[in-house]
Amino acid sequence: MTKGESGGVQEDQPQSKKAAKKLQKEAEKAAKKAEKQAKLASENQAGDEEDFAKDRYGILPMIQSQEKLDRVLVHVKTLTEEKADQVVWLRSRVHTSRAKGKQCFLVLRQQQFNVQGLVAVGDHVSKQMVKFAANISKESIVDVEGIVRKVDQKIESCSQQDVELHIEKIYVISAAEPRLPLQLEDAMRPEAGDEEGRATVNQDTRLDNRIIDLRTMTSQSIFRLQAGVCQLFRETLIKKEFVEVQTPKIISAASEGGANVFTVSLSISQSMKYSLKFMFRAEDSNTHRHLTEFVGLDIEMAFNYHYHEVVTEIAGTLVQIFKGLRDRHQTEIQTVCKQYPCEPFKFLEPTLRLEFPEAVAMLKEAGVEMGDEEDLSTPNEKLLGRLVKEKYDTDFYILDKYPLAVRPFYTMPDPHDPKYSNSYDMFMRGEEILSGAQRIHDPQLLTDRALQLGIDIEKIKSYIDSFRYGAPPHAGGGIGLERVTMLYLGLHNIRQTSMFPRDPKRLTP
Amino acid sequence: MTKGESGGVQEDQPQSKKAAKKLQKEAEKAAKKAEKQAKLASENQAGDEEDFAKDRYGILPMIQSQEKLDRVLVHVKTLTEEKADQVVWLRSRVHTSRAKGKQCFLVLRQQQFNVQGLVAVGDHVSKQMVKFAANISKESIVDVEGIVRKVDQKIESCSQQDVELHIEKIYVISAAEPRLPLQLEDAMRPEAGDEEGRATVNQDTRLDNRIIDLRTMTSQSIFRLQAGVCQLFRETLIKKEFVEVQTPKIISAASEGGANVFTVSLSISQSMKYSLKFMFRAEDSNTHRHLTEFVGLDIEMAFNYHYHEVVTEIAGTLVQIFKGLRDRHQTEIQTVCKQYPCEPFKFLEPTLRLEFPEAVAMLKEAGVEMGDEEDLSTPNEKLLGRLVKEKYDTDFYILDKYPLAVRPFYTMPDPHDPKYSNSYDMFMRGEEILSGAQRIHDPQLLTDRALQLGIDIEKIKSYIDSFRYGAPPHAGGGIGLERVTMLYLGLHNIRQTSMFPRDPKRLTP
């Protein structure tokens, strides 16, 4: 940035002259409109008196980068007793406002933080100015100048409890339409158990107005925690010298099997790699835990002699994530807990590993009728989660050695019992968050298995061929990002942990 | 991992019994085959003599996680003088092999590192064993045990120059097919200027056999550096409290404009955010710098009064990336330089910012004929890059204030001259790597601009609506990951920096 604003060059260009004029006019029109609104706003409230504070409030023209201002704006979260009696500028949303005689209380919000502001008639503030402040629509963005003042009694309803802001200037930067499709207070209220029968907001209304729903302190916390999951995942693996790779999403065989296949073919080029990638699911996304589109945190790793080397790494990575969330994101966890109460997430070190036959035995003992090589249904998974929690006191465990029959063709069969396989799922609070396996690295066995399962060999030729020039034994798995966030926080619908969820019924916003 | 291998449960399940038996048989068959091969290998080379070393080499059965071995395998890169006279186990690929009388030299490779190995007839090694080693196909994966020995003369052809490995055991873990579709030495040779006229490998052959091409030290270095770009991007932004978000790829309006639109709508929910996302391009991917699919490192940020606040952040982030690459990835840079020689990447602090009219003036002075509001053609961009380099000695600069006519509808017009806009591109070595702008945050102006450009308002309704409830002024941009890697390293084709590139002619591998 070595150059200042030059203000552009004015030259006569016949083609664009007309368009330029038109735009100039529009800009002028917009400016005039803003001016008029500001004037109206002040006049409306002025009555007969001359307004001595009329330059201290108003609606500003749209910020179009007209000028560079050196003004320092502070963050709401920095407003504590240490700033008492200082004059500060602040940009924030009007969270709520409440007028009362000669004063108006505004709660000013920035992401998860809010502070109480007070506009009260006095030396700098006129009656008209209080009225103007009281009329600002909720969710509007304002610039305010004010003095930070210590309060005698903690303000329980705000994140900044020890101070309030005595506002002396207030300008609207971007006005919200007066009628909001949902109220933030409603959207943050616990759904069950509000004795006073106050309103809550249902899931569809939330998602139709996701832009506003994402502004609740609960949503802000959920997505900050989710960013934490991504960051902890990478931190842990980078420390272990894994390499991040980007794999293509456009693949020639568009089947789900095809997608899985493609990922795996990479593993021979690097011994340890991870990637954060977008997965697309063609069907079955109408449940509480499925989305048409989700984010997968993938790990693939060459091992030396036994795929448990990889299982240990993956489970260890998840444990690092759980610890990091607990240690760094307590504020977010507590905030979400207020709306969606939940027990803290429990895990063991080392991670509990059960084998499939043991799980079947536990379920049978609990009265479930099922075959030994049958996959777990969702209710059975959940029941198993409860049984494991009772017996081992953990919300996280590995289920190893799935029946070969219920896994994809590229899964390595168990060397000792071909009914089973070197594959595993991992569970959080009784729901699957990762599926993985030792992958077959021998092109002949891979071909045989594909043929046995009736797969068209031509379609997976480039996958099979990728193993012809020396391939190390390897295993891996994909962690569902939205599920980890949901289950760590004990939420009940994956749409809460996807910013703009996609399912068969939803493509917008 | 609290439980050992139980070996599975054997129960009679009528449906799967047959399949199980079949698999068992196959496994036995595979084992027998391996055994036979091993025997054959040793017999072939045995001649008449009894082989005293016959247990010290061979082809092992496929690793199916039969057993857990405590054996420690060392990394090639740790083989230095300090390990002299130690016995080590190593798993690596056979990079090259050369037999010479009673001895065989093997170069053993792991990613970017390699070491010379020697199998020589002696107390532990038989003639037959040397012959076996000499016959192992290149790219096969082997386990070797050997003694690390200091060498008198540096081994110039290997990364580990001060030691070699005197091999006493060698087992093939995964055999490569004897005929490789391309030779790694050829694939690593500088394309121009090989006086001896030795073979090089063309781009299509490389991409058809990307699995092998990715094994060259050049490729390994390119993708390690690329992972570095991602890591530095995140590190820099996380320090500044940006929040990582995941935006959906499935959007209802599938046009390129639509894709751009969608991203932007997020910015109102969080003041500073970044994401690493996959972008898809519908057309124009036949050039040296376009791909059908590429990775975008996106930044969106609310600003206070002027979009240059954002421009400064983005340029600063890129400068942090350049510095980090220079300081942390010198090995990779040097390795790529050996095959593709190139000048070190130059940049200024603060970053040079030019305005569009200045660029047009420079080009006109250099003899280019163009209109003031005309976009830059690719040749003109490159020429401008050379002119800027001459005048300012930098490979990185910002071109600010593009004509409004050549930017999308959601671009904020310049407040002082409506022919121009608050938008910018950033360039590395004369090629665009980022495009960005202040986005219009006023729903009315947004609607007007869309109508002026003949865009169907219905299709972007949810985008426009997202600005109705208070939206801060904001700006952002998208960095093309593959382009940054390509241009930082001075490479000439973007297919070299995409692991599995996709263009209109290529969907596999």
UniProtKB/TrEMBL annotation, chains A, B:
Quote the InterPro entries the UniProt record gives. Aa-tRNA-synt_II, aa-tRNA-synth_II, aa-tRNA-synth_II/BPL/LPL, Asp-tRNA_synthase_2, Asp/Asn-tRNA-synth_IIb, NA-bd_OB-fold, NA-bd_OB_tRNA
Main location per the UniProt record:
cytoplasm
Keyword Protease: yes or no?
no
* CDD domains linked to this entry: AspRS_cyto_N, AsxRS_core
Q: Segment Disordered: which positions? A: 1-47
Basic and acidic residues bias spans: 23-38
Task: Establish whether keyword ATP-binding is in the entry.
Answer: yes
From the UniProt record, list the reaction(s) this protein catalyses. tRNA(Asp) + L-aspartate + ATP = L-aspartyl-tRNA(Asp) + AMP + diphosphate
- Supply the alphabetized keyword list: Aminoacyl-tRNA synthetase, ATP-binding, Cytoplasm, Ligase, Nucleotide-binding, Protein biosynthesis
The Gene Ontology biological process annotation of the record reads:
aspartyl-tRNA aminoacylation
GO CC annotations, alphabetized: aminoacyl-tRNA synthetase multienzyme complex; cytosol
The subcellular location is: Cytoplasm
Which Gene Ontology terms cover its molecular function?
aspartate-tRNA ligase activity; ATP binding; RNA binding
Documented EC number(s) = 6.1.1.12
Domain Aminoacyl-transfer RNA synthetases class-II family profile intervals = 279-509
Q: What class of enzyme is it?
A: ligase
Q: NCBIfam families, from UniProt?
A: aspS_nondisc (TIGR00458)
Sum up the protein's function in the record's words: Catalyzes the specific attachment of an amino acid to its cognate tRNA in a 2 step reaction: the amino acid (AA) is first activated by ATP to form AA-AMP and then transferred to the acceptor end of the tRNA.
Spell out the subunit comment: Homodimer. Part of a multisubunit complex that groups tRNA ligases for Arg (RARS1), Asp (DARS1), Gln (QARS1), Ile (IARS1), Leu (LARS1), Lys (KARS1), Met (MARS1) the bifunctional ligase for Glu and Pro (EPRS1) and the auxiliary subunits AIMP1/p43, AIMP2/p38 and EEF1E1/p18.
The Swiss-Prot or TrEMBL record describes its family as follows: Belongs to the class-II aminoacyl-tRNA synthetase family. Type 2 subfamily.
Name of this chain's protein: Aspartate--tRNA ligase, cytoplasmic
Q: Which organism is it from?
A: Scyliorhinus torazame (Cloudy catshark)
